[in-house]
Batch of 2 targets.
Target 1
Amino acid sequence: MNATNRIVNRALLLVTGLALAMVGVFLVLASGKLPRWADGLRDTVAGWLGTLGDWLGSFWFELPGGVALSGAAVLLIAKLVILLVLLIIFLSTRGGGKTATVLRIEGGQGDTELDANLVENLIAARLRESTDVLSAGTGVYRVRRAPAIRLSITLRRGARVPRVLDEVERAVRDWDALAGTTIPVILHLQGRGWLDRWRSATRVR
Amino acid sequence: MSIDSNVYTRVLRRESHDSRTAPAVVVASLLVILCGGLLVLGIWMIIDERVGDTLAEFLSGRRAAFDVGSVALGAGTILLVLAILLIWLALAPGRRDRRSRTTERLAILVDNGVLADTVADRVAEAEGLDRGNVSVVVGRTQASVHVTPTSGVALNPESVREVAQDTLVAAGFPSTVRVRIAERGVVS
């Protein structure tokens, strides 16, 4: 439910994949281990690379220290820096979208904010009391510029799903009555992890 | 106040597909390390020309004790396999094993494993079987129930199907159910 832009994830994977494929093909062609039929292909690719190299080597930059840099080196360094900046931006924008405020009411006397902990205490804590529920947790995320509640529940072995759905529905309706407005709630019934296999099927109280 | 149904549509669509964040972050981190290394190396080469010469000598492969061609071929093949993996990750839909629906108030996401567990529980309960003798796989549109009956006790596949179907309908995720009953039963 976070705000990660998934298209960018896939674009990065695709571009890196294509680049790796190109480097891989170059390496295989350059290995000299291919049968004779690949020679024509290798010569074509070598020709392209040669042209590119000639073009990049055709201009030079003078540095103040008396060092001359070829166009290739300058372009390469510039590209590396830009790529590095873009990658760091990419890494820092993953995730996010979680918010600590579930509701904000603006009134004449001042604003009221409901904290996300309140949802945890009023919905999740109540559901944890249920004999069908192994664990319950909530998170509040901003979806389409408004808060939405994610309620994740792991069921105990032998739990009855319709009964749990009813309980959740009731808990959420009570929350609605308290908040005075309906906030979208996404209920996720999670599978048990491998550790929960050893937990008992029933709960004794 | 009613709920903006676009919120549910968006969340359920996103939650039923893999985000690909984990592989993308791994790839990006490796690229950062690679770019940083190359940058340091490049600047070092500008400052000290001997580094460039050493590097060129190494890359030419004349000094190498191993066969450069084979290494290039191996590395190229590994890179191609990695490339195919990344491109597949980028283009495959990456559906998760989940089903979803909305009610008047809630959006509901259920892992298929949870539905399978419930169906297996109910079937075992209704037919008086040990829970370990019922295994259920729930897919996107259909569920298959595999039952090992108790030795000497007849088991009606229709009643098993009915129980399974009723359970799925009660959870709100109706699907076609296939029942397979093992030919040889077990003692309890």
Target 2
Amino acid sequence: MMLSRVANSIYWMSRYLERAENVARFIDVNTHLMLDLGLSVEETQWYPLIATSGDDEDFNKRYATADEKSIVRFLTFDDKNPNSILSSIYRARENARTVREVIPVEVWEKINELYHLTQAHSRKRSVEALQAYYTEVRQSGTHFAGMMINAMSRGDGWHFARMGQLLERADKTARLLDVKYFLLLPRGEQVDSPYDNVQWGAVLKSVNALEMYRQEYHSINYRDVTQFLLFSRLFPRSVRFSLDYATVCMEAICEKKPQCTALNDMKALRARLMEADATALIASGLHEFIDEYQLGLNRLDQSVYETFFKD
Amino acid sequence: MSLESYKTEGFFDELFASDGVPHPAASGLVEQLDALSRADLKRRQKQAEDILYQSGNTFNVYGDKKGTEKILPFDIIPRLVSAADWDKLERGINQRIRALNLFIQDIYNDQKILKDKVIPAELIFSSACYLKPCEGLSPPKGVWTHISGTDFVRDGDGEFYVLEDNLRCPSGISYVLENRAVQKRILPKAFQTLKVRPVSNYGDHLYKTLKFIAPEGKDEPNIVVLTPGIYNSAYFEHAYLAQQMGVPLCQNSDLVVEDDTVYMRTTQGLKQVDVIYRRIDDEFIDPQVFRKDSLLGVPGIMNAYRKGKVALANAPGTGIADDKAVYAYVPKIVKYYLGEDAIAQNVPTYICEDDKDRDYVLANLDKLVVKAVNLSGGYGMLIGPKSTRAEQKEFAEKIRAKPRDYIAQPTLSLSRAPTLIGNGIEGRHVDFRPYSLFGEDVFTLPGGLTRVALKKGSLVVNSSQGGGSKDTWVLGEENYYGVAE
């Protein structure tokens, strides 16, 4: 049992950190895609990142061109973009600040350190100059998760933190699959061409999934990558895995709570995912499915808010 | 080497009896410090600042959410308090707190001290800190001032004087604990050599104190810390104390009063709260009773308190005993309630409300320190010898307009302590605030906050005005039972 406000903060602390880490992963996957496509600097495409993030409207209002510099700024250091890395880390830190008494002190210090690191890098403008920083953001995510696993008692605080992380991840892994949807393919290659497979390799790599994927499917193709990232029962960044374990967390939280609407909503969303099938999805439009699924996640978030955090 | 050319310049110094000659209790520390080169000291100073910065106890410099953040300046040369000095301080503080506690109980109930004309009744009833809603109240176990911090300064004669009693929501204890944690890492050898008394068990003592005042029959009381919120300058401390005790840190929005019972909103519904260590001032705590415009308080909490359903620490109303005009009467208060002479000395104080005192103050504004009775943090203060004619004129007008609001004291020659400044070590003025807890007994933590005025010659130690802090090492007797931390 914990204060509702504290539960809310710990949930969002964890979500925002996962969000920051995922933006760094998105930029990384795009960088690799550009290299693998062999595009010249003029041909480089950064707009897919904005399109996938769902923040394209905001971006188009405030930026004239979608080049590397503007996109790096928007996604990394723009404090007016609520989903930029800087905004996410800032909010993770503000939330952590309000739950300092319930998290291990090292967790707070790590988030604080990441915030100061972000400030220190915020004058840089190119992906190349920021490579070390993006790596640091990803590693901090791992570091944070490790400290939570090793130092946090498995009470409500842990379950809310883990649930926040997993719901954010369920959302972002799905969006990652979508990056390639928006990518204009100038050389008109076909699905399953060698080029295509190299690109899907880059997507897998950006979520550290390449080795685990290979053990299961051995060679890379569109259908299997989609199958793996959406439906793997065992891979910890897949959408299904995230929902499975978010459900476990919520069940633990709901044990002593008479009314738990959000749990039913979560189970329903998971059931819808399980009904889908990768081959059929690809035929009927993966992008449309992901769009609809994300709406479901947004509704779930609202339901979590109403069940646990609202007064 | 590093202390070779250190000069006391005629001030009472916390480490040196005279140039080149340390106080007996300080010789071990001076020896250790002297063995370090200046470059080494600088490096350690930087390391300490990095640790504090990492810990995130920082404040925004420009008030901008993305602005530069800074720590409260920390000086790595500790301040020492000898075992003999501490013994007297401790006895003095404990006596003072017991007496002030009896005084508050009396003021809000029988008012014997006023009837016996030991203190003029107008002085009490004209105080902004006298709270009518507290009349007739007796807090659980008769304790009002559970948590307090007594400000001391040391004059040129080496005697400690009480400057202020902070009986409402004294802050700074987290710096004491954090400074110590850092200090142990920075000068471990010196720390080991001296027999420094421990402070890190403060959280345990605080928890016991709060548990002691829980309503009858609550064996496992639900204790919480109540903070005004994240934008309060002491928020770090509120979170820190909650963490040290392992109890929830609440904001007002987390609490609700129903049927004169206080509850907190949890993920499993409402849960009753038994004891609140509140870090919100009296006037803001309940908009139904005190300031109607308070957005920080909990409506109805005073009724729950009156009915004994919840205990508050400190009890509302304690401010009457740390009004700076009442301060002048503390030696009489000690005598009146305990029949003893005050062990801790007061600084002589002129009460501007008194005609004779006021004439003296107005004629000597260039020599005295004038203070507003109800302000802290170094605000509303005139330091006569350092003031301009215009400032003196301004204060003369203020005093004539509202004499009850001002007191004056002679300018003390505050003691100094060696402090790392630039590339050298120089003397800087310091004060001292030990912290006490009053539950079953009075306990004063053997340590405290030493604030240091980092500006050369400055007497103002407040952090808002260029002050920093030092760790304070209270030394044990040779055969002190405690093992150093």
